[in-house]
Amino acid sequence: MFFVSDVMQAAPDSYKSPLQEMTYEALAKLQIPFARVDTDEAVSMEDCIEIDCKLDMKMVKTLFLCNRQKTAFYLFVTTADKPFDSKDFSSALGISRVSFAPAELMERILGVKIGAATVFGVLMDKDNLVQVVLDRDVFSEEWYGCSDGTTTGYMKVKTTQIVDDFLTYAQHVPTVIQMQNSVAE
After folding, report:
1. Burial, 146: exposed, middle or buried (Cβ in 10 Å; 0-12, 13-18, 19+)?
2. Are 123 and 40 in contact (CB under 8 A)?
3. Mind listing the pLDDT tens digit for each residue in 7-47?
4. Considering the domain boundaries, does residue 135 fall inside one?
5. What pTM did the predictor assign?
6. H/E run at residue 43
7. Could you tell me the CATH number of the domain that includes residue 116?
8. Strands in the chain per DSSP E
9. Is 3 inside any structural domain?
10. Contact 32, 82 (CB under 8 A)
11. Contact 162, 155 (CB under 8 A)
């Protein structure tokens, strides 16, 4: 059975990565409240459903993408239920086709491993290599559910505070696009 802790409103007593520590430090500095849980390593969407139930929210889907030359990087945030279509994403931004960035680049640029991509990764992006791209449908949710920079820590924060306060603090102004809901649209 997949373990999900009770809900907590305080940062962990110890940190598993530099990004996780930076995440909670930024939230404290900005006085952004959050609710969080510790979990077994989440590897499937079924695991995320259990986390969503415990935190009473819907997890976002966060993808780290790049161009073919690996010189342009995008942190794309959409709703968990939407399939990703590279052609639609590239068309919405007016750029060449993108693909998933290699794991080693995600770790070097965002400080996370596969499965832990999070908007908080931009705290590691001191050179502003990454363009944050938000699907407009993310704004329809009151709560923004995401990883805290690990595959065993998840939280919810008000969506408006992520967009208006956190991303401003991290100096990453998001581009907002509208993605299709399904391949059939």
Report:
1. buried
2. no
3. 999 999 999 999 999 999 999 999 999 999 999 998 777 78
4. yes
5. 0.94
6. none
7. 3.90.960.10
8. 35-38, 60-66, 73-79, 99-100, 130-135, 143-147, 153-158, 175-177
9. no
10. no
11. no
